[in-house]
Q: What sequence folds into this?
């Protein structure tokens, strides 16, 4: 199989509220696409030329535009952005909050199979079109709605609140200490977000004390043990990455040493109902074994271990999911995640930083965009283009993107070819 | 690239109304999956074995379960059908009425790239959960809703009614003769549907006279020139095909001569707004040039021409789209489609039969299922398993699946390896 390169991309500022700006999805797609093409030196003439040879395609990740903006059939929307996209194959890929990864997976496979030379992958979601309660109900369709979503106020904080409870139970943790760990995780993500010029929360106040004071007016409980500070927030935004084949690199006389490649991938679905997940994992040392399996598949395909990974972007939809990810990545043994939280391992300056971007909690979580945003951040780090949030020695990075209550699991490893094993 | 085989599949009876039966989507998925696995001799043990090696995946085509049954994140649903699907990678693929083809495309690419050995592709839609006006509004989200759908009663009959009007205008056709041609197309599909034991309309009355008497109580006008008889109808249903790699064929000691392969594919997106489509095609001899381009790409990849294709399954969402497809396939020159309608070329016993299954008008059109249903029918014909609707000398078949007003276009050629050029 041929290598798949990441040429670059773009992300919108996750602070923005597109409805308040009076801008629609076409404006969103135009901004992110124009920026990504500019950053990758791809002209509209080049797009037309590639399209004449049927060598370019578009992959859209989105969860629920049907609900938020009354729109389905999202593939052809780019034809409204610019006529250079007339004729370019395009489709939409969906797995709730992992929708961006489904689009990435399809695009990567198309390029490595030789079908296309250039893939424009865009993840996006406009969520600020409705109030948070209505939006919470929409998000309930990422669980089995009839059983886990319908009539439940904010179903997902409750599901990940259950993950918190089950984690405490499974590993016999001290609940106070566990909640303090979650507060540390929250605070790291907020702190990291302050370095990221596109982060939603970069001007927000958060402290470890605030994150650890739950059940008060400024930090209400939203799902079992979890409070507002444990949650990612409603976000509008889009992220775009441009992938290419080796043939494109050669034809355009680019230097393959300047661009990272996809080194590994993993994709697994777990039992849909949260109860079934917990029942299945009863005798497994991992609380979410299929999430761990996704990571293992990814390491195996890349011929790597956790020792080869310099940083992580993970799906901290809630602090309880990042806590779970620590052992899923192999940073600690399952049940010992607290070590990596307490000893600074996952800090920005730690040995295994998680979410230098701020993650979903700090950077923001426009649902369908997050997988692509993570991939873009892996690209930025390994090419030393992350600016204020650049970590040191970022050779290989791993991302973990979850859909629903980890019903869909996706993992990718990105790094410069130089560091390929 | 490796060959991709079709092992078989299954379709639900498109007469059925699952809501009236009190059955939900899990029941639908269970029936079609159980039937498909039985037809392809794949046991649940085999699925688990393949999954241990991470060599099996599921691809779901669906347009709008969000609207019809309040459910998104459709990939993991099969874990509710049977625990043998725990851990199996799965995702949902969407391009309105071409959703099934997006799922097929992703599955085919995964197999030819060597990522998986077995792919279960399921297209489905439950549409009878709401009345036809509400459903018509849902379907408006397959167009740009704000411009072409919102506040319009039955937007799609109107859009394809406009295709009818533009066709008459572009080729200076006699309108009465054109409408008679559409009635012939309708009647062929209904007649073909009567031979298909899974067709929605197999017990319905239709005659050429009825189809050509528009604007009366029994055949009301629904979109410009088009009447009820020109439309596919609201349908519940699912279709499944099982694809495999050559490695699977060898490991299972199957005879590769018994199974057809995917010989070609095409995928193009056209300008989203219907007005933009017509404006762009003004100086082109084809009224929908990107639909034609999709067919041409498919022929080119298969190294075939129309002469090599023995039958077609096309997207007759409306009779005007099948009329357009005749020249897109290359059966006639554009503007001369009436010849193939009037001289019997596209009849069941003609030299280039279209829709021996009955197509969307005769067999039914559960939106997300149709692409997969077409692929299943190509499989049945080329393996001589189409029973009462088997056509003669079915060596190679082509399918054309459209999304929206042909904003998404997908084409595949299926045939036995023996007949590979």
A:
């Amino acid at each position: 199989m041929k290598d798949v390169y990441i040429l670059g991309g773009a992300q919108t500022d996750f602070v923005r509220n597109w409805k308040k700006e009076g801008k629609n999805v076409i404006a969103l797609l135009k901004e992110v696409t124009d920026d990504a093409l500019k950053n990758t030196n791809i002209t509209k003439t080049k797009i037309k030329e590639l399209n004449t040879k049927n060598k370019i395609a578009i992959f859209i990740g989105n969860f629920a535009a049907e609900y938020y903006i009354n729109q389905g059939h999202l593939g052809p929307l780019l034809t409204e952005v610019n006529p250079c996209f007339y004729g370019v194959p395009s489709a939409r890929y969906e797995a709730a909050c992992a929708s961006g990864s489904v689009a990435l997976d399809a695009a990567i496979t198309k390029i490595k199979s030789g079908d296309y030379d250039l893939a424009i992958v865009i993840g996006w979601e406009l969520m600020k079109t409705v109030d948070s309660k209505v939006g919470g109900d929409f998000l309930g369709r990422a669980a089995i709605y009839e059983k886990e979503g319908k009539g439940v106020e904010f179903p997902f904080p409750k599901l990940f609140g259950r993950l918190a409870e089950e984690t405490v139970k499974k590993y016999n943790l001290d609940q106070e200490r566990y909640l303090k760990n979650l507060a540390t995780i929250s605070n790291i993500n907020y702190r990291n977000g302050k370095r990221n010029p596109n982060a939603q929360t970069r001007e927000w106040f958060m402290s470890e004390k605030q994150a650890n004071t739950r059940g008060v007016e400024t930090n209400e409980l939203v799902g079992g043990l979890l409070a507002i500070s444990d949650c990612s927030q409603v976000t509008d935004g889009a992220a775009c990455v441009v992938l290419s084949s080796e043939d494109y690199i050669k034809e355009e006389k680019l230097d393959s040493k300047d661009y990272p490649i996809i080194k590994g991938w993993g994709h697994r679905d777990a039992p849909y109902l949260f109860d079934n997940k917990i029942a299945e994992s009863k005798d497994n040392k991992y609380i979410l074994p299929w999430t761990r399996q996704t990571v293992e598949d990814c390491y195996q395909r890349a011929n790597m271990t956790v020792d080869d990974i310099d940083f992580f972007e993970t799906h901290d939809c809630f602090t309880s999911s990042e806590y779970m990810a620590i052992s899923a990545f192999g940073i600690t043994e399952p049940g010992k995640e607290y070590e990596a939280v307490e000893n600074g391992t996952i800090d920005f300056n730690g040995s295994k930083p998680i979410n230098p971007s701020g993650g979903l909690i700090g950077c923001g979580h426009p649902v369908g965009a997050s997988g692509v945003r993570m991939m873009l951040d892996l690209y930025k780090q390994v090419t030393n283009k992350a600016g204020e949030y650049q970590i040191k020695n970022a050779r290989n990075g791993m991302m973990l993107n979850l859909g629903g209550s980890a019903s869909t699991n996706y993992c990718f490893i990105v790094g410069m070819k130089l560091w390929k094993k």
